[in-house]
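A reminder before we start the practical. When you read a complex entry, don't treat the lines as separate problems. The point of joint prediction is that each chain is placed relative to the others, so the output describes one connected object in space. Small molecules and nucleic acid strands, if listed, are placed in the same frame. In the example below there are two entries. Take a minute to note the order of the lines before looking further.
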Amino acid sequence: MTSAEPGAVRGLSRRGFLGSAAVVAGGGLAGGFLAGRAAAAGPPDLAKGQLRTPFYGEHQAGIATPLLPNAAFAAFDLHPQVDRAALIRLLRVWTDDASRLTDGRPALADPEPQLAGVPAGLTITLGLGIGALSAAGLAKQAPHWLAPLPDFAGEKLEKRWSQSDLLIICTAEDPLTVSHAVRVITASAADFATVHWVQRGFHRPAHTAPAGTGRNLMGQVDGTINPVAGSPDFAEIVWSDGEPAWLAGGTGLAVRRISMDLATWGALDELTKEQAIGRRLTDGAPLTAAADQDEFTPADFDALDEDGIPVIALNAHMRLGHSEQNSGKILRRPYNYDDGWAGGRADAGLIFTAYAADLTAGYVPMQQRMAEADVLNLWTTTIGSAVFALPPGIAPGQYLGQQLLE
Amino acid sequence: MKGSRYGVAVAVVVLGLAGCGGDGGSANVAVGSCAHLEITDAWVKATTEGMTAAFATMRNPDKVDVVITGATTPAAGMVELHQTVRSDGEATMQQMADGLTVGAGQSVTLAPGGDHLMLMELPKPIAAGDEVQVELQCTSGVQEFTALAKTYTGAQEDYSPSPAAS
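Here is the predicted structure of the whole assembly.
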């Protein structure tokens, strides 16, 4: 589900489709191919372009709000002279930019104001690295987990994707909306910070794929086990309860860039792929599920095959990453990336994101287990890693990060 | 108007007949007053130099014209109302001798490359993110608003005096 107002949007889509189908039927053309063409040529679903995800609120948008298909993660390094006052000024400008862009209005001094009129559900979310707190003289206010993650086996971290002082995440239904938002945000930051990296990610948009969990570039249904927004489980896993006080209603985020060797993975047979994951490729159901059961069926990790071997292998990805199997619980909002061709292979993979009120308790133990044993590591390599604190939401008149800085 | 607070300075004091269909002949009523202007999207170009400019959209909801005669701000020693005049492909800025009129029911947008408030004799740089208080003066009344300073490199604007204008 990837729209802020799914009912309304799906209703419009449905009407558009039925209208086209009726036209086709009247013309006596019953072929599926032609019907499909007619549907595609029907009235465009422009309502999605005017979706607005509320910017203000108890929590920042883009965490509990529906996952939108296009994302950019932009990381910034503060200029050395930036102090607390300067950081406040930057966050004031970014907040003003975000409040306008998410409402479909141009930013002040917008370089291309013509691009602002299609908010497409735009979310703009701020993250603070430990460097931002240090620049403000507030390192003592950092949550204990806002520190470099421990070294994990097998990772090959590259400096170009490493820790930064600030993070802005822009997501929307429309990639041009995301591009414009990043342009405005980076222009506004010019006097304060330099861009360290921008990671762009995508999913299938809702108008091309059925609602449900997305797939990654390895073909896997990815992100089945996730707390449901609004549930007590979600609140406990994701929202900080005020340790430290300024972070109450915020959360922690680890951004991990995971490169995939799609050529060697693609050379495997389906059975091997399924055993590596522990789920069926067709529908994401655990390998222990019955044929008519879906991805949300609880896995039977004790099940053995006729030879006495675990049906879900001991080193299968889903066993090691499963939240019921260990103490780790996180919110996943991963995005695929496919950035062209480099070194004789697709430069592709996953922008993995772990959101947790306490990353040390929620994410690190699980990641340690996976780094040491997950058989998927044969085809995946973590090349980037950064950790941020995502401040709580704000009311009009406030700026993002104000709970920390004042 | 939801969103930013910058430049949202809608006058809350409604005086008597203003905007109520009067013909403007009621001399004691603050018709045509600056105080009625609705100011939105106000910003200042951040600068380290001695001059810069401020921009905003100003809507006059009344049925009489408002004439802005000047402006002041703690951020500048002198403020002038400027218009950009284009002739022979050259854009030059000149002071508006007769002030800036916001017609009854009309909006005027001050923007880079167009009309603007020229801020001169800056006592100190205006940094991005600064909140600059501006007061407009009119033939009747004043209007205050807050403008957010932003980095801006568009419109090929240069509000510094050119040392050797060619």
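Discuss with your neighbour: Chain A is about 25% helix and 20% strand. What might explain this?
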